[in-house]
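Aim 2 progress update. The chain analyzed this quarter is reproduced below.
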Amino acid sequence: MRRIRLEKELTQENVAEGADLHPNYISSVERGERNISICNIARIAIALNVRMEDLVAGMPPKRKT
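Predicted structure tokens:
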């Protein structure tokens, strides 16, 4: 998500506003600190003007500890 946001020259605040989410939430998503809901993936995808698949493509599966 961060790569896409930076390619589009958007701030976390821009994305947060477009997705109707708090900037701190966007920041924690980018750092991988959140288990993000499908609803919020959709909201962020709309704010970034990309497909939801683009946000999750190529992500490695999370390891169980």
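The CA atoms of residues 10 and 28 lie 16 Å apart. The mean pLDDT is 91. These observations will guide the mutagenesis experiments scheduled for the next reporting period.
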